[in-house]
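Renewal narrative, Specific Aim 1. Our central claim is that a sequence can be written position by position from structural information alone. The example that follows is taken directly from our test logs and has not been curated for this report. It begins with the structure tokens describing the chain, in the order in which they were read.
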């Protein structure tokens, strides 16, 4: 589906596979998940990310919760605002999300080792729009 091109995620700034779909930009971000964003939404989100230092984290989390490998989230101009103003999960919900992710990775083998890549969660705020 994606061209063999690497680009920065519009939301979080991580490098990853990028492609085009008409006016839309396809991004397969390892932090946010796969999504398609329109040109208008890209411009709108860019200004929101510049205005609020936590907007990228809100948008990244909101995308991750709404997208899937089978059905990529399509972000249009009306969705962009909702993504940057969505609430971040509370610490207890974050813990539950981590446990659910580990359980999903482990499947039915509760003793299988599960690798969790924390490298994407410790970076400073992305350099988007700079
Ligand atoms: Zn991202």
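The sequence written for that structure reads:
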């Amino acid at each position: 589906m994606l061209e063999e091109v690497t680009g920065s995620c519009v939301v979080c700034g991580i490098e990853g596979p990028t492609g085009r779909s008409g006016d839309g930009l396809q991004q397969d971000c390892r932090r946010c998940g796969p999504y398609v964003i329109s040109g208008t939404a890209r411009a709108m989100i860019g200004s929101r990310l510049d205005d609020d230092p936590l907007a990228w984290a809100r948008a990244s989390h909101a995308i991750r919760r709404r997208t899937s490998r089978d059905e990529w989230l399509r972000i249009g101009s009306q969705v962009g605002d909702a993504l940057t103003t969505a609430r971040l999960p509370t610490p207890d919900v974050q813990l539950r999300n981590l446990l659910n992710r580990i359980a999903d990775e482990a499947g039915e083998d509760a003793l299988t080792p599960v690798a969790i890549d924390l490298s994407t969660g410790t970076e400073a705020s992305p350099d988007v729009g700079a």
